[in-house]
């Protein structure tokens, strides 16, 4: 088993059976984690890239069974930042030194693509990168957003298991999601995807397929997080995902996609204190501090008790430097492009 991990560390390839056997064996976790940490260091270095996350609207037309923002949750108060508020929030983050702004929202046309393009153009007057995480759109909308200046796009596949996808995403179409990812890639965005770990009905084999899916689309960024049940969703009584399994999926992803950018996700910190610190030590190289104003942040409840890491725009450098001191890594304010992307587009 150890040999299998060492082989993957050198060749960056594993088949489904090999991945499944590593995921099902809990005696080799530390070997896997150290291996992923070495690969992270060798390929993407010691820098922790920071991205400022702005949750600009919690309005969503979809009904993903796991998510607190689902349209049928009538117990949350919906909001969309005004154009001015969004731009001023981005500007505060930029003035604080962030070089990447992530604009995230539920899937909705509450803010039109045209308005978003205008906002992107405005923010892009600064020398920064913009990442969008706004769900499924038409090809031409992705194109307009790219032309307006958006650099990167995150669209998690959530699960690559088509049957499970169907059960968890009423009125959504797995094939359209794949089509969206292809379009995003074709348009030249740095392309991000990812999955949830510990979803009800998800098997180890399906997690192995998720990892192979990331590899097959040659993803530039991969976000992985444990499922956390939300009380106002149909999955409220299900058990939460396991941090260790999520970390193992992430570590294996690092072995197979050595050049990719992989965040230590907020869900990892929410499910267990020091979850992000652990993630940084087994493959992750990105942290996404939330810079949304507190009033809105609390309403962006995809799952309960979302960890805020005690950071505000004023204290984040100090807090993060302290928090991640045990990793011996440096927090640097660079754009942090995905090397997986730049090596293809040189
Ligand atoms: N637990 C963990 N992650 C969740 N997400 C949505 N709902 C939950 C939940 N209950 C994740 C999805 C989505 C991202 C923005 O948040 O993977 O892509
Ligand atoms: Fe909407 Fe995204 Fe939540 Fe699904 S995961 S309900 S698309 S915000």
What does this structure look like?
Strand 6, helix 9 and strand 7 (221-226) form a beta-alpha-beta unit. The relative contact order is 0.17. The protein starts with a helix and ends with a helix. It is an alpha/beta fold. The strands form two sheets. Strands 2-3-4-5-6-7 form a six-stranded parallel sheet. Strands 8-1-9 form a three-stranded parallel sheet, with helices on one face. The protein contains 15 helices and nine strands. Helix 3 packs across helix 10, helix 5 (113-123) packs parallel to helix 6 (139-148) and helix 9 (204-216) packs parallel to helix 10 (243-256). It binds 5'-deoxyadenosine and iron/sulfur cluster (SF4).
Features:
12% strand; 15 helices; binds iron/sulfur cluster; 346 residues; three-stranded parallel sheet; binds 5'-deoxyadenosine; globular; alpha/beta
Quick structural gist:
The chain is of the alpha/beta class. The chain has helices spanning 2-11, 16-24, 29-44, 83-95, 113-123, 139-148, 162-168, 174-186, 204-216, 243-256, 266-271, 275-280, 294-297, 316-323, 339-342; strands at residues 47-50, 52-57, 100-105, 129-133, 152-154, 190-197, 221-226, 286-287, 330-332.
Secondary structure layout:
Blueprint: H1 2-11, H2 16-24, H3 29-44, E1 47-50, E2 52-57, H4 83-95, E3 100-105, H5 113-123, E4 129-133, H6 139-148, E5 152-154, H7 162-168, H8 174-186, E6 190-197, H9 204-216, E7 221-226, H10 243-256, H11 266-271, H12 275-280, E8 286-287, H13 294-297, H14 316-323, E9 330-332, H15 339-342
Parallel strand pairs: 1-8, 1-9, 2-3, 3-4, 4-5, 5-6, 6-7
Helix pairs in contact: 1-3, 2-9, 3-10, 4-5, 5-6, 9-10
The structure holds 5'-deoxyadenosine and iron/sulfur cluster.
